[in-house]
Design goal:
The chain has a single domain, classed as Lipoprotein localisation LolA/LolB/LppX (outer membrane lipoprotein receptor (LolB), chain A, Clam). The chain is 15% helix and 44% strand. A 13-stranded antiparallel β-sheet has the order 6-5-4-3-2-1-13-12-11-10-9-8-7. A hairpin with a 3-residue loop joins strand 2 and strand 3. The longest helix is centred in the first third of the chain and has 14 residues. The chain is globular.
């Protein structure tokens, strides 16, 4: 009986996914290089259609820890005052004069472009993904990431990382079968002060939406002490007061 039990345990262990401790450590460093532990920032989101027409949004955002992020729209006027909150896998949208916040999902988009809510309300990558392999080539590393749960927007992520800066250069978002959903391009590495040096622009395109493009431009990223209360449903209408 002990031998049978041992064989069962070995079988279970060998069937579990193999994760790279080194890759997870690299991913955590990438997260911290992208974002301080607690900070606020401004972002412009631009959706570009095949005919060249654009729609722009400006947001003020705050983030604390690995899994709490909130934002408020400053423009256009039609969106002003709308706020979003993400705590772990849970997301909400607050619309002034509508009443209580409504639940939203990671695959929806509050801006209607290629960036979905998971992209706009981005947690630390290490909060959602494990690294199962690291490939090295010249000045880049490629991290092969697998989602920790089924509720994550992308089943797999392939992240190209600059070896020296430990910052992403490109990310491919994949289905469980390996089909490409979208590609994120990280550009214009900039010094925001206080040791924050990271890409100021993320552009995305998708084979599922040919001719469409979305751009996210980051500005005024700075470390900031934020109260836990700022990441609650009751505070959604007051996020702009932290500016």
């Amino acid at each position: 009986m002990p031998r049978v039990l041992a064989l069962i345990i070995i079988s279970l262990l060998t069937s579990l996914p193999a994760y790279s401790a080194e890759g997870d450590e690299i991913l955590q460093k990438v997260d911290r290089n992208l974002n301080p532990e607690a900070f606020d920032m401004y972002r412009k989101l631009i959706n570009v259609e095949p005919d060249g027409s654009k729609k722009e949004f400006i947001m003020y955002s705050i983030k604390k820890g690995r899994d709490k992020v909130a934002s408020v729209f400053l423009s256009p006027a039609s969106e002003k005052g709308r706020s979003t909150l993400r705590v772990g896998e849970n997301m909400w949208l607050y619309i002034p004069n509508v009443g209580k916040p409504i639940r939203i999902t990671s695959l929806q988009s509050v801006t209607g472009g290629i960036f979905n809510n998971a992209d706009i309300m981005r947690l630390d990558y290490s909060a959602e993904y494990n690294c199962d392999r690291v490939d090295r080539k010249e000045d880049l590393m490629t991290l092969h990431l697998k989602a920790k749960t089924r509720s994550v927007a992308y089943d797999g992520v392939k992240m190209w990382v600059d070896k020296e800066k430990l910052l992403p250069v490109k990310i491919e978002c994949l289905t469980s079968s390996g089909m490409l959903i979208k590609t994120l391009h990280f550009k214009q590495t900039s010094d925001f002060g206080s040791g924050i040096v990271r890409p100021a622009v993320i552009e995305t395109d998708s084979p599922l939406h040919k001719g469409y493009r979305s751009v996210m431009i980051f500005a005024k990223i700075k470390k900031k002490n934020l109260p836990d209360e700022a990441f609650t449903l009751n505070f959604l209408s007051r996020i702009e007061s932290l500016r």
